[in-house]
Amino acid sequence: MKNAVNEQLRRIPPINELLELDPVEKQAEKWPRDAVVGALRLYVDKLRKKVLAGAAVVPESPEAWSQSLEEYFDGWEQDLHLRPAVNATGVIIHTNLGRSPLADMARKAVERVAGTYSNLEYDLEKGERGSRYSHVEELLVQITGAEAGLVVNNNAAAIMLVLDTLAKGGEAVVSRGELVEIGGSFRVPEVMARSGAVLREVGTTNKTHLYDYEEAITEETKVILKVHTSNFRILGFTESVPLSDLAKLAKKKGIILIEDLGSGVLVDLSRLGLPKEPTVQESIAAGADVVTFSGDKLLGGPQAGIIVGRKDLIQKIKKNQLTRALRIDKMTLAALEATLKLYLLPELALVEIPTLRMLSESEETVAERARRLAEAIAATAPGAHVELVSDPAQAGGGSLPGAEIPSTAVSVVLSWVSPVDLEEWLRKQDPPVIVRVSQEKVLLNARTITDDQIPFIAETLGRSREVFV
Ligand SMILES: *Cc1c(COP(=O)(O)O)cnc(C)c1O
Prior knowledge:
Blueprint: H1 2-10, H2 15-18, H3 22-30, H4 33-52, H5 62-75, E1 86-87, E2 91-93, H6 104-114, E3 122-123, E4 128-129, H7 134-144, E5 148-152, H8 155-166, E6 171-175, E7 181-182, E8 186-187, H9 188-194, E9 198-202, H10 210-216, E10 221-227, H11 243-253, E11 256-262, H12 280-285, E12 290-294, E13 305-309, H13 311-319, H14 321-325, H15 330-342, H16 346-352, H17 354-360, H18 363-380, E14 385-390, E15 394-396, E16 408-413, H19 419-427, E17 433-434, E18 436-438, E19 441-445, H20 454-468
Helix pairs in contact: 3-5, 6-15, 7-15, 16-17, 18-20
The structure holds pyridoxal-5'-phosphate (PLP).
Pyridoxal-5'-phosphate (PLP) binds at residues 154-156, 182, 186, 227-228, 230-231, 260, 262-263, 294, 305, 398.
């Protein structure tokens, strides 16, 4: 075996011989010669590793080398580690799969500024240094009704920054029912400790009353923090204090009310038959001084942490040195501005922003897509056992906990490969197809699949036959 491998490795020609092959010569017309040589070295290194791992064989004839090298050069630009994936899981905001796909308009906005200079921090009116936050602040004010706003890396950063600015050296009062851990072990109590605020827990896990807050407030208290428990529900005998009551209390005591909304909904989802989530507008209207939320959960934009609220407080936050370390880049700002602009016309936002579109699509539309996927699979993978099953989708990303969104999945059983092996093989395709396996069946949930992915999924399942039979 070892000898066979060594024998193969010896068959790899020297670089100067590879340089004479047609596809390589063609490449040398486009790329600097040394770059072509470098690319060939990378290719040979990778081939060696693969051969040693038993995952490839060395091409035998010059024709086979030519073909392999042609494919290599053609695919060079796209052969990246971070790549698009097909989400057939039915989990709409899938943190591991990059959360929110961007709206077309947001994608184009990124492309427009990515490869060129821009007015990122340049005031075109005055011809002097400007603020990167100016591009989205007005939109945030217009949409949420807050006085001012800024944007940082993500919501975890936003909370840290807000507490560091407004609660450091003092106490922050928070309900025990809201001391949550959010995916990736982001724990509210630990973030508070990091920011230098002393945590004053009030109430119990299931019930916190207004008088609990009232009694906890002392000379040392700087803020009340309300955390929207977006990733779980405590059911049954529960009570929490409405935000408007906390706002009155904070005002009376001369302290600041901060709300971490988590998901950051800007349109009322109950209109779509989904569970009621408090919107950012409602939080501001109810009297929160500062509200933080994610850009890439229910908002459907890029990863970002958005902070809106009272002008004097936002001003202080902008001046905090920590803000500089948490700042967002031009591509995020471009995507966020375009996404927020869609919210000026909420009806457009519902169809253009993929996250909202997937949440709001009718059951019939999703079932129809499932039907078309099932038919395509039946055509490309004869002998496949294909069935439509009811399979509720989920908002995911710690949003709308417990809410099951009616959906249809295509259940696939192939006689030539087990569901577990098929799941693994599908995730190794390009693009990878991420599926769930349930009760010995591979499930493809049609709510998170797009129409234009149907042919690829069907063709891939068809191809699995050649691989496994
Ligand atoms: C998701 C979430 C966060 C963290 O937001 P990221 O944008 O992922 O950093 C913080 N608080 C709540 C309540 C959340 O749901």
